Amino acid sequence: MTGNPRTLFDKIWAAHLVAPEKDGVPATLYIDLHLVHEVTSPQAFAALRERGLRVRRPDHTLATMDHSTPTTPRTADGQIPVTDALAAAQLEQLARNCEEFGIPLYRLGSENQGIVHVIGPEQGLTQPGMTIVCGDSHTSTHGAFGALAFGIGTSEVAHVLATQCLLQYRPKTYEIRVDGSLRPGVSAKDIILAIIARIGVEGGTGHVFEYTGSAIRSLDMEGRMTICNMSIEGGARAGMVAPDDTTFEYLYGRPYAPRGAAWDAAVAEWRQLAPDDGATYDSRLVLDASTLEPMITYGTNPGMGVPVTGRVPDPMAVGDLSQRQALEKALAYMDLQPGQPLLGKKIDVVFIGSCTNSRISDLRAAARLVKGRHVAPGVRMLVVPGSQQIKKQAEAEGLDRIFRDAGAEWREAGCSMCIAMNGDQLAPGQYAVSTSNRNFEGRQGKGGRTFLASPLTAAAAALTGQITDVREML
Amino acid sequence: MPAFTTLTSTMLPLPIDNVDTDQIIPARFLKTTDKAGLGESLFADWRYTPEGQPRPDFPLNKPEYRGAQILVAGDNFGCGSSREHAPWALLGYGIRAVVSTRFADIFRNNALKNGLLPVIVDRPTLQQLFSLAAEEPTTTITIDLAAQTLTLPDGRSVTFPVDAFARMCLLNGVDQFGYLLNQLPQIEAFEASIPSRVNTRQPAP
Known about the structure:
heterodimer; B: alpha/beta; seven-stranded mixed sheet; 8 helices; 7 strands; 31% helix
């Protein structure tokens, strides 16, 4: 080892190199944990069969059903029927693949099933210092634990299934430092929306984000997951937070976390992962959390965001021609006028869920605001817990009752209206305030229009029927 | 994987920045277990009306761009989801190369593994290609992967970067899987030297 100060990323990268990058050939990187779901894996298993290969480490692989699964309430016999024949076939294919290759699977409706980026941490499978991949771009979520976690395509899913490795060029590093204290009504979601609004959807291309600073340290694990989750929306394949006592407390006692002497040894090792004093990054951004307000997007990519008290920007004020055209196109799709305030904009649907914001603290925050109030007439509010475990916990706390009493729908676990391939979707022209991660055209349903926001801001909109500054309701 | 050496073709212009993979292939078409047939749904929500009729003003539906194998698109093409269905849909439609000023990381990786070449050019070149495609749709350009050049009809050539390894694989029509499989002895040796961090088949004892 040289004496060069190393970042968190540097340490994990070095510890997983089977072969370093050489003569233009990418490095061979070892993968500790591979998460699998029904949508991006069938063609990978087919590739294994074509070549007569087995899954090398089914014990480092876990599958769940989440993307194409319905979240409609169970039937009287406790089942969740899949009425879409294509989705049913895809789910059945995953079950057959897992059976044939010996991979543990959390089936639809089973006690640990849920969104792939919710269950890894929940089960204690996601641990500091690991490399974690999944055929899903929001794999960056797991970086909240000080893991190097990133999304891969289906070809790479096959590579990992067969070899437990990936060919990778070393990305650049990008420190995002957030200091200061968040003000009431402002949350982790607002931090990441503010970051992406600042750097744009391509600002992190080719980089791995490392989030540092006192505001990040002050967040609980669920807030850190929200931030790391949306790293990809800023163009970075991965985002990470160095592990600390908050991380260890979250993991302690979870089913797959080490126990006893192994726990102590693991924590001692994990403490070494923090960036060394003087470690440097290829790029850097510094933000003051105390200046942030609740954020909302107005356009058709996650970089098009402003404080909720802000106005829709005017394309004529944008100097760059292609950026001006992009903004014009976005506002035409959203049917918003330049200079229009976001506050007071009428909405049709509120979605609380997704791998960004479907965890217990997200549901608690929304429930606190909703308690004793009612969803505005004509508004549909959908609350979708990220996993069966979260659903059970929320029901034990009576959160489901609070939402139902307010007129919201309480659903089964899954990706739901974040991806609109499971029956939960917007109708053409509808406006939604959504706690998910993407406001791309049609993302939540063909012709649907998405405002991305925090669970608090989303809940406030459900109660008033319009985009609202939640700080006035606290 | 088919080899990619040189490609001479007309262009399909899509002068839109930040084209995300949800536009390239909307999620509702991802309920498939196959790679085939996705070309029909390429850019579905821009290409067809809600009734399923082709929108005449969308480039894919304009007769003058039919048969083009080179898509020329705005900055940061392929951002968003990791779905490899995006390059499968482009290839299924007949696109063999995409020219832009920048590509999202996961899309670029996925494209290269399927024989779809991402070609990075500077903004003035991109603008020139858009103009040429708009004014004279029969214009052809040539992409030479071995030389890493894109040649315009006036004879001017610009060079573009490609990862050396991906270039070698594309030129020879071999995929990266075989190379990785050949490393299994090293992988096993590495694995034996590190602690196993987790066992998904069994909770911690």
